[in-house]
Amino acid sequence: MNAQPPENPGPRAGERAEDRPARLTVGIVGAGRVGCALGAALRTAGHRPVAASGVSEASRRRAAELLPGVPLVEPAEVLARADLVLLTVPDDALPDLVAGLARTGAIRPGQLLAHTSGRFGAGVLEPALRAGALPLALHPVMTFTGTAVDVARLAGCSFGVTAPEELRLAAQALVIEMGGEPEWIAEESRPLYHAALAMGANHLVTLVSQAMELLRTTGVEAPDRMLGPLLGAALDNALRSGDAALTGPVARGDAGTVSAHVAELGRHAPQMVSGYLAMARATADRALDHGLLKPESAEELLDVLSEPGDEEDGR
């Protein structure tokens, strides 16, 4: 790598975090929930946010709350002012943003350029690397609200980190300063890593929301209060024990109960039937593989879980 470090560099290869030189000036391109939270965390660690970009009213409100006194300017100006630049834009916008910044000469040699996308590794920053930047992929494994609570939630939060070998210590130091724990992800593994997180977090929100909706239909006034202890225990058990934590009618092979579920969903929430069947089949497969569901109990259950048309399609 031919890039020279900035005058006010971050941790460099071979340095311990406690031996860091002077504090970094920080810029944020994309004053969304993630960018503002990370900027606030870096400020708490002693770095100095100096500029951010954001055009929506929501971005302006978040910046005012989490980054008070930090001016909102154009992305090129953010790069002109900062030693460390966080690119916190949606995944699909990141490649074009990086290419555009490199094409216009906004990137300085030796500038630390870090994106927070889960999908991409350091490779998406190749145009910036050619311009002399120091590329880092720092993805916080957390959901963000856009409020001050996000900064506290970073304590102990894992970051999926991908960086060139010579920048691993720099990446590690920045993550630790924000309160996080670095987890190294190979460049080629980033899409699968991100898929795993999306399955766990995003689909969980959908499942919980559907469960609350169904409970309201039955007349439950506080479905969140009802589900909280149950889902909290289920999550804890799953994280501790994996598939051994599977319980319920599918894992037991209670075909009659599952059939009743499908029938009731068909009457009250037909849009949820396909999702229920898909998750139940996946649960049955895992229960079978781990010996929780006996083959003799599974046959009738799997008949219940076959969607109309499965037999005709040869499935």
**Pattern of helices and strands:** EHEHHEHEHEHEHEHHHHHH
Say what oligomer this is. single chain
- End-to-end distance: 53 Å
| Class inferred from helices and paired strands | alpha/beta
Mean pLDDT: 91
In percent, how much strand structure appears in the residues?
A: 5-15%
Please count the beta strands (DSSP E, at least 2 residues each): 7
C-alpha geometry? elongated
The stretches of 5 or more residues where confidence is low (pLDDT under 50) are 1-21, 309-315
Q: What Rg do the Cα atoms give?
A: 24 Å
Helical percent range? 40-55%
Order of strands in the sheet with most strands: 2-1-3-4-5-6-7
Biggest sheet layout: 7 strands, mixed
